[in-house]
Amino acid sequence: MTSSTRIGDSKTCNCDVIVLSYKEECQDEKPSHISYVFAKESTWTTGRNLLYFVAMERIRHYHYYIFLDDDVDLGFNSFSSEEIKRLTPFRAFEQWLLNDEPAVGVVDFQKLGKALLKRRRKICNTNEATVVVPVIWFDALFNAFHHQAIKHILPYPTQYDKDSWWISQLHVMYSAELIFRGQALKYVATTAYNRQHRPYPRGLSQVSARVPVIVEDIQNKSPKVYQNRTLFKTLKTSQLQSYRINTTTLCMNKIHRHPIVPYSHFDGQS
To answer: Quick check: helix, strand or coil at residue 72?
Structure first.
């Protein structure tokens, strides 16, 4: 991961890296910008929460917090211009984050970018050429959170881990749509790959029962002036996978450093 084409060394990456290990502590030699934390027993959710708490307790302040699984690599695709390719995929993604400043930034995964752009053109009746699209449903393997947004979304809920480790990401996606609608953005010009698949509790069979609880929790924590907005009711009764097909969130043009203000998308609505 510290190779020049990936995260990079302390000179090529303007970053700090926190690595969580489980079962056994990391004893490998490490560059100065990398530190290790250890959790003997950890789920995906509790592990990411530990990384989140460690990062937030540091004196140094970061502009973005990027969470990635240990087997993730980034690559370019057919949407990557020659200008973008002048950088490595990790540096290109970081540069995009700093240019557009999304509340949540993700990359393409499983080559879904083309379908997302096609759906946006149809719903929004636009032929605009872009590699940045608002996104509702996104995998957790590679997520970047702006420093002004992360405390409104994390930590992850852990009470669903016995059912499925996937459910905690539903909290992230619903939070992004309800709190920062239109500001969770996919950078289609880079693609994430993960090559390892380990056994763990997974699946979405419990989603129908969990969704209303997740949405209501976000609703109860929101300012009272917004708690009766229709979007809360819509998302309580909708699965994100179906909601995303026709939602006008895809048409919201909140790129290029739009102010990151929680629930601001409700302002001006009845």
So the answer is: strand
